[in-house]
Amino acid sequence: MANQNNEIKVSGISLSLSGVNILDNVCAIFKAGKISAIIGPNGAGKSSLLNVITGVLKPSSGSVELRWAGTDYNLMELAPWQISRLCIARQFQDNKNFSNMSIWENVAVAAMFSNFSDSSRKTIVAWNNAESLISYVTSRLLPHSIHHRTKSVLNIVGIFNLRNKIAREVSVGTRKLLSLARILVQNPNFILLDEPVAGLSGYAFKKVMQAIKSYIDSQDAGVIMIEHNPKIITNHTDYIYYMEQGKIQIHGKTDKVLKNKDMWKKYIGL
């Protein structure tokens, strides 16, 4: 059972870019062991909120705090690589992987990266060079623990049988599963996802959600998910935050929010 005190707390976050208000006094609490969906029209501020949580964007006011295992962390004081070190992982919609590496190598690189010291992690991120990272990691003999984690996660997401395939040669659905595997192998406490099932077939769709739920159950992790798919929102989430014009207009447990007719009228025009 998840520790109910483990959470990410967003308080009074406001953000302006080039004079345009992007986020306006956003408040939310994302609990470990739960899937929280952030929904709303394009331009509502959903991705910007995730960028604030991960330290990519610095807001003009407000705070973001992580509470984990009885310790509080002020994420506003940390760089993105430091936030990553606290096991907050982000998956983007474009599924960035190392296209010239095999599926196995892609996941092993992510597993190795999660084991690096703070100084090594900061240095590698600063390189911003995929070839340097690949050379650095693949030149080293993989520890047994990395080998085991890589195999385990590839089995969880259902692509172990494709482990020797080059990433650029596999389907869009498989690349999305690979991207998720690279997140899960880092053992994150919170996973931030941007439309994780967009463009997937029914089989891959189920595999992604099964992998996410399996990970939550085994690790007591939390998921914050930007999502537009009504099936995901209805059947696979615990909380909903509906955003519009940079504000959270409606929020609560999924079953209660789904009964809010005004929200559905705004969101899907019913």
How would you explain this protein's 3D organization?
The strands form two sheets. A six-stranded mixed β-sheet has the order 6-7-8-3-9-10, with helices on both faces. A four-stranded antiparallel β-sheet has the order 2-1-4-5, with helices on one face. The mean pLDDT is 85. The relative contact order is 0.18. Helix 3 packs across helix 6 and helix 6 (144-157) crosses helix 7. It is an alpha/beta fold. The protein has a single domain (36-54, 87-268), classed as Rossmann fold (3-Layer(aba) Sandwich), CATH 3.40.50.300. The chain has helices spanning 46-53, 80-85, 103-115, 118-127, 130-138, 144-157, 172-184, 202-219, 230-235, 254-257, 261-268, and strands at 7-17, 20-31, 35-39, 61-68, 71-74, 88-91, 190-194, 222-226, 239-244, 247-253. A hairpin with a 2-residue loop joins strand 1 and strand 2. The longest helix is centred in the C-terminal third of the chain and has 18 residues, at 202-219. The chain has eleven helices and ten strands.
Keywords:
270 residues, alpha/beta, Rossmann fold, 6-stranded mixed sheet, 4-stranded antiparallel sheet, 11 helices, 10 strands, 25% strand
List the helices and strands and how they pair.
Blueprint: E1 7-17, E2 20-31, E3 35-39, H1 46-53, E4 61-68, E5 71-74, H2 80-85, E6 88-91, H3 103-115, H4 118-127, H5 130-138, H6 144-157, H7 172-184, E7 190-194, H8 202-219, E8 222-226, H9 230-235, E9 239-244, E10 247-253, H10 254-257, H11 261-268
Helix pairs in contact: 3-5, 3-6, 3-7, 6-7, 7-8
